[in-house]
Every structure is written in structure tokens, then in C-alpha cells.
């Protein structure tokens, strides 16, 4: 084979995997074309057909390049625009990040093809997919972004969220793709649309849809009668490059103060992450002023602020006025808020003159914030993307609050993906989610994961709404992701057992 023919053969082998991976994130915000995920997984199964495990790993890695290259492209914006890295170096770091994450797809495809392919493909592949999404939620502190289930928050599959969470929806998506793949294989072999085998899979798909449909008839939580909170949210749209400039801090606080003037009639006013860009211990005058202002209006102010304790600095939020408590962020953003593998990476960042952050993670047993008689489960920025982290305290709260500084994402896919994940947390836990961000999207999200009201990005805006309080718990709030994770492990164990028996018989 000539060198040119070899290159063409390589392109024909790997290009479909790259395109299939790039297609999947289009099912998520801001594109929201939910069939894209089903089509993507279908083609991945087709591409892996009859490959050996090592080849499957290579194809899986290329699929991952497309998947994270499109879905996590916002990383480049954060590094280049706000990390002060050159375009070339930001592109290099983003490529390394994407290539590293893609290794998980390489391992997933190798694992599936080595041990489970050929027998109950649909179930086996769905189980593998879910286990690797779950693995991503905690491995190396976790990157629980781009789960396929998020793309179905407004489809029939959303009925699964209060029971099995977003991973349960991911399971249903990949199972449906696998069944369609099985139907295609049967049709390709028999060239018939009507056969016993085809009918069996079609019935399975129908039963799956009917079961999920009826799941939506269950009411997991109930609205408390005559009990609700009037809440106002402030989005100041401050320039990120000026926000922490000492010469501009006063002007920024004056903007928040001015925007809040007509909002104090609400029970609670919420400002976004680090809206007060000072250390709590050095902001006595500012905190005293806003505390007094909130009390005089019989209201509470909840705001993001930095906090120092025992030489550690935390990304925090506090409640002033008729509120109390301080919450320290627990889930930190790698490189954004702390440097993983600090001994190695700090030297690299210093060489290229990139900024370093060294925030501390808060303790895991923190009390809920209280404001005007309401209890709030608090999540700062990145924390809201962790399903099992959010559900631990959600059931104890009257509603959920997340504050964020999505300025770091620019006009990329990031802010709207982030909003979609916050909406899924509301649906999983049966609680309103109140979201205040620096430059968008600030929003009220109801207990069904539907956006009640929102701002646009890159505008100065305020929102006011009455938030109903819900009581009761969803199944997900009790058990989290464990049922779908254990179910997936059980499926793989059964398939592995059958394959072993079959190989012994042969």
C-alpha cells in the first residue's frame, strides 16, 4: 500500500469516530438538538463493530477528542482571555486537556469491546457508558460535565431524573441507541422490516417509552401551603479585568448597591460569586453597611465573598441582615482555584507566567445558610455540576441557591451548559433553584427543572420572583446515583458470566 493510500485509509478509519464524538455535545445547551446524542452513540457502536479491543481503544480516544473538543471548547476561552495565556499556548493547554479526558473514552471502548461486546450489546454498552460517566464525577476530583442525560431535561426522559438522576437518563439514551443499533444489524442481515427479532426490539423500545411516560405521573414532593419566599437576584455584568482592581472595587460595590435599591422589599436579595471582591476579615465597613441596610428593610442579603481563616483563603458566601452563616466552597475548579499536582504544575505555570490560585476547600459538614427564616442549600459555581454532592443537603433546604461568575466562560457554550446542569439539580431534588451570576445567565428554576425567568448574558439586570417551598424527597435525594451505578455493575457481571459459560461450552 502506498503512503498516500495508507493516509486515506487512516482518515477513513478515524474520521467517522471524530465526527461521531463531535456530534454528541450538540444535544446539550446551547444547541439543544437532543437526537444528536442518540445518533452519536449509534454510530460509535457501528464504528466499533468487529474491532479488536486495542483498535476499539484508539477509536474511542478519537471519539473522545471530538466529544470534549466541541463540548469543552470553553476551556480555551478561560485560559486565553482570562488566564492571560497566548492564543497558541491556550490552544496547546486545551488540546492537552481534551486529549487527557479522551483517554477515558479509550478505556471505556477497550473495556466494552474486550469483555462485553457481542452479547446483549445494548444493555452492556449502556452500563459501560454510565459507569464511565460516574467515574468522571470523582476521578482526580472529577469533571462531571457533558453527561448525555442533560440534553433530555425537556423530553420524556426527564421523568427519570427524580428517580435515577442524570445518569439514569444517560443510561436510557445509550440503551435506546443500542437497541436501534441492534435493530439495524437485524435489518442489515435479513433485509426485512417485519420479523420476530425486529418486533422483539421494537416492543422493548415501546415498553421503555411507556414505562418512562407513566413515571411522570408520580408526585414526589408537595408545595407547602401559604409558605413562599420573595427573592431578588442581581446581575451587574462587571468587567472581569476590573472586578478585583483596588481602584475599581468601590465603583463595583456602588453598582450592586444601586441595582438593589428597589429590591429590599423582597425577603432575600442575592448577589453572585465574589460580588464583594474583598476578604471578609478586611471588609468590616462594607459588610456593616450592607448588613444595616438589609436589617432596616427587614430583608437579607446573600452574597459571594472571599474568607480567610487559619491562613487559608476560601471562596465563600454569607448571609447578612436577617440572615446568618458563612458557607465555604468545597468543590474547587482545577487550575482556576487550585493547582493539582502542585509540585510539578506550579513550576510549569511560573515558566509561562500564568496566574496561580491557591484557595482552600471548605469542610464537608457545613450548616445551611439562613435568610429571613428560610434555609438554603448553597453551591458556588462549579459545585452545582456534581449530582451527588448537591443532593446531600438539598432535601434539608427550603430551596437551592447557586451563585457563579460565568464571566470566565465568555460567549462560549460554557454558561448555557452550566445553566442546564443547575436545572437538572432542581429536577433531581424537587426543589426550586435560584441562580445568581455575574454576567449571565441569572435565573429562577422550578422544581421540575423548568426555567421560570432568566436574564440574557452580558447585560445589567435584576430579577424578582416568588419561590414556592417544597416538602418531601425524591428517590434520587435518598439514594443518589448508587441505584443506577449498582444496576450497571450487575448488568456487566451477568453479561460477563454468560460469556464465560458460553466460551466454556464452545
CATH architecture tag of the largest domain? 4-Layer Sandwich
Give the number of DSSP strands.
14
Through-space gap between termini: 37 Å
What is the helix/strand order? HHHHHHHHEHHEEHEEEEHEEHEHEEEEHH
Written account of the structure:
This protein is of the alpha/beta class. The protein folds into two domains: 233 residues, no CATH class; 250 residues, Carbon-nitrogen hydrolase (Nitrilase/N-carbamoyl-D-aminoacid amidohydrolase, 4-Layer Sandwich). Helices cover 49% and strands 17% of the residues. Strands 1, 2, 3, 4, 5, 7 and 14 form a seven-stranded mixed beta sheet that branches. Strand 8 and strand 9 form a beta hairpin. Helix 6 runs antiparallel to helix 7.
Task: Provide tags for this entry.
16 helices; alpha/beta; seven-stranded mixed beta sheet; single chain
Secondary-structure blueprint:
Elements lengths: L2 H21 L11 H14 L4 H19 L2 H9 L4 H29 L5 H16 L24 H30 L5 H20 L6 E14 L4 H4 L5 H12 L7 E3 L5 E4 L4 H13 L3 E10 L2 E10 L1 E2 L1 E3 L13 H10 L17 E3 L2 E7 L6 H8 L4 E6 L9 H16 L3 E5 L5 E3 L5 E4 L6 E11 L3 H5 L2 H24 L1
Parallel strand pairs: 1-2, 2-4, 3-4, 9-10, 10-11
Antiparallel strand pairs: 1-14, 4-5, 5-7, 6-8, 8-9, 11-12, 12-13
Helix pairs in contact: 1-2, 1-3, 2-7, 3-5, 4-5, 5-6, 6-7, 6-16, 7-8, 7-14, 7-16
